[in-house]
Design a protein that fits this description.
This protein is an alpha+beta fold. The chain has one domain. It contains three helices and six strands, in the order βααββββαβ. Strands 1, 2, 3, 4, 5 and 6 form a six-stranded mixed sheet that branches.
Length: about 120
Amino acid sequence: MHFEYIDKADLQINEILGGLAEFEDLLVEALRNTIVDRVAVIPMTPGLSGAAVFRINRVNGSHALLPWIAKVAKEYELIRRERDNYKNYIVDKCPNVPTLINTGAGAEFDLRVRRPTCFV
C-alpha cells in the first residue's frame, strides 16, 4: 500500500505524533478487510476542538472508495470532542459526507489500547 501526503499533511502529523508510523499503522489496521492500493492524506480545516483533520482518500485499482475522515491530536479529550462534534453537527446535516471508520463493534476506531492520540 502506498501512502501519499498532500499539502504537507505528513509534516502536520509528524509534528503532532512525532512520526508517521502510528498513523499509518492505524490506517492499515482499519483497512484490514479492504483491498487498497493507494491512500492519499489531505489536510482539512482544523476541528472545533483544535484537532488536526485529514480526508483519507482510498483507491483500489482504478476505483475510488468512499473517503474517511481522520482527526489527530495529542490529547484524547480533543478527539472525543471532535467525534461528538462530527456526529452532532456534520453527519446528520450534510449528505454524502465522509464516514468515520467503523471497526465492526459499533464504534469508531481509536487508539485507546495504544496511545490515545488519533481516530479516523
